[in-house]
Amino acid sequence: MKKRLLSFFFCIFFFSPILRAQSTKLDSLLPVRGFCIGAPQSKQVDAFVKFINEELASRQVNTLILRVDFNFQFESHPELRDSIALSRREVKKLVAACRKNNIQIIPQINLLGHQSWATTTYNLLRVYPEFDETPHVKMPEKYVWPNADGLYCKSYCPLHPGVHKVVFDLVDEICDVFESNAFHAGMDEVFYIGDDKCPRCSGRNKAELFAGEVNAIRNHLALKERKLWIWGDRLIDGKTTGLGEWEASMNNTHQAVDLIAKDVVICDWHYERPDQTAVYFAMKGFNVITCPWRKPKIAVAQTHDMLKFRTTATKEMKPRFFGMMQTVWSPAGSFLDEFYGIKVNEKAGENTPSNCFKTMYEEIKKVSQ
Fold first, then answer.
1. 3-state DSSP call for residue 187?
2. Domain 32-111+161-368: homologous superfamily in CATH
């Protein structure tokens, strides 16, 4: 017993300065080293805690964004819970694992856009259909894109007088239970905004509507000293840049970039090319994080771009280049199956989220040594 204790304290004494030095250097190179994924289902919580302890911690990931949406047993609005949802006790397991490993945990609920997918209307608009920006657009029995209605995902109306009372209740509760000083509101790929048939939004400037919603969320969070994070695609001009309607805006919301508070953190995602729009956001005064998905070569290029920006930028710009964040758009369970080789997508070859994650963090380790 005594020998084990001596060995334990020796390890702390000997290795702690080394680990601190590595962490300090990494923090200087890339202040944010993130991972974004859907929150696990209840049955996957223990496996995900293991993943945090063994995989995120070993790679010195320091930020975890969990897309919760309605996968929590909300007390403020139990009518909006998923049928199977995380309990408070299960969330606290995730919080404890992140705290132990010095990982900032940030919950996400998709606000404004992404209120539906394919043929499914999500909980908010299903329970409160009066919040729908486009109630005249009916969900199809079979979804195809493109379609006559231009339906990708439903949005809620940002000017509906009752919507913020509901969504802010959810935001406050989820930030409290995750003990988080930041919240991710999503807000990507918003196609429906300022619809001509909306009695409140019709004829209004789409950029002002988008900025108004971002600022409303930001100002609510600021009441409890919390920061807002969002995806950046709606703030990029899709036509001028040639990035198109998915990675950028084709409905003029990009002008909102000059109308929103500068302390909003921008998660800048590009998956097919290493487009350097992080510079654009930093020049606009925002802190920005570059986000890859499934292509390892793209992620490596983006990592070196971010390092170059931090090395060559002015002293005013450098702190705005926050770092890198791997994004995963499959459920947590299927990602873990892929990561541990339980289920392999042979058709995808090297281009998988798990391989992208491993490759990007191997590259970060390499450049930090």
1. coil
2. Glycosidases (3.20.20.80)
